[in-house]
């Protein structure tokens, strides 16, 4: 997800870029009901839009998600993705480069609707010595300032994947702490995982849910290997040392990670291609950003009897804590 708010750090060209593209989106939006009534729209698209309507209603009624989470309208894009976002991390410690935006607060990513503009931003950060990465933007939120639409790039074939993207973004509209991306993204990812499983169970029963989990096993293993490496790097940097020593540790840990990718038996993942990638700190801290605190969230969820309404309310109570205090909660074992 990236947020479309204007930055005080940035400059007129960036504001113009966001404003122009956001205006296009507002003009191109069509109510899903209107799209469904259009005889020119392919039936395959209509089927997916009907699924999104069901998921949105399920999110509100069964997962206690905010009805302000969008997905009542549709935008047909003329590009393969909503946009691209740039992230950066210090090369020898887990410290993200951040940008400040009104409402959203300080966040570790900057979104663009143009890949070329994202590449220019990335190059600027590389020139300053940061580890960087450009990622495709899968989700989109203005935190209720506009009615966020569903985009054509989000019309996934699998109902479970559709549920994942809708529920994740609706979760952001339900609980959000400005400036605390670690908590916000990890909370939304937890709700996404639990909620999409509930939806798949509802529409297809235990067998479909079992099949889905089986198909996700390899991706889960891949993600866990990245998280394991991220925590090794985090520990190494926290131990301190000279730049040469930290660089040596970083090189060794990432080297071991590459070996593990190659040694693991995969059926779908191209381990050779992945092992040759220019892995850096941003890749690993990025995974932590979206996948921290799983044990903490599950414990709280079980304590309220898997009641989503009570769970969200417990999470809202954490507003009284600082981002650092919430970070410590996510590190609980």
TrEMBL record:
<protein>
    <submittedName>
        <fullName>Putative aminopeptidase</fullName>
    </submittedName>
</protein>
<keyword id="KW-0645">Protease</keyword>
<keyword id="KW-0378">Hydrolase</keyword>
<dbReference type="GO" id="GO:0004177">
    <property type="term" value="F:aminopeptidase activity"/>
</dbReference>
<keyword id="KW-0031">Aminopeptidase</keyword>
<dbReference type="Pfam" id="PF10023">
    <property type="entry name" value="Aminopep"/>
</dbReference>
<dbReference type="InterPro" id="IPR014553">
    <property type="entry name" value="Aminopept"/>
</dbReference>
């Amino acid at each position: 997800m990236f947020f479309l708010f204007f930055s005080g750090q940035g400059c007129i060209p960036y504001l113009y870029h966001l404003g122009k593209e956001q205006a296009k989106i507002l003009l191109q939006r069509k109510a899903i009901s209107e799209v469904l009534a259009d005889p020119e729209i392919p039936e395959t698209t209509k089927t997916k839009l009907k699924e999104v309507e069901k998921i949105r209603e399920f999110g509100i009624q069964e997962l206690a998600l905010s009805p302000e989470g969008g997905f009542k309208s549709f935008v047909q894009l003329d590009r393969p993705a909503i946009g691209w976002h740039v992230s950066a991390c210090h090369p020898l410690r887990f410290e993200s480069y951040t940008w400040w935006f009104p409402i959203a607060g300080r966040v570790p990513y900057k979104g663009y609707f143009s890949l070329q503009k994202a590449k220019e931003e990335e190059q600027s950060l590389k020139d300053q010595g940061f580890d960087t990465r450009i990622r495709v933007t899968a989700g989109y939120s203005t935190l209720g300032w506009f009615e966020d639409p569903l985009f054509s790039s989000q019309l996934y074939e699998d109902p479970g994947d559709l549920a994942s993207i809708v529920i994740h973004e609706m979760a952001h509209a339900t609980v959000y702490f400005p400036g605390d991306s670690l908590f916000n993204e990890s909370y939304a990812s937890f709700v996404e995982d639990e909620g999409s499983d509930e939806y798949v169970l509802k529409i297809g029963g235990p067998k479909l849910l079992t099949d889905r989990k089986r198909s996700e096993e390899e991706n889960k293993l891949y993600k866990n290997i990245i998280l394991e490496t991220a925590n090794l790097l985090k520990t190494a940097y926290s131990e301190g040392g000279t730049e040469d020593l930290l660089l040596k540790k970083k090189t060794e840990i990432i080297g071991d990670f590459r070996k593990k990718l190659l040694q693991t038996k995969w059926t779908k993942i191209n381990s050779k291609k992945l092992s040759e990638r220019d892995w850096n700190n941003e890749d690993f801290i990025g995974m932590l950003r979206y996948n921290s605190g799983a044990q903490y969230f599950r414990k709280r969820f079980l304590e309220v009897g898997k009641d989503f309404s009570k769970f969200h309310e417990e999470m809202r109570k954490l507003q009284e804590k600082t981002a650092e205090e919430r970070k410590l909660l996510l590190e609980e074992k």
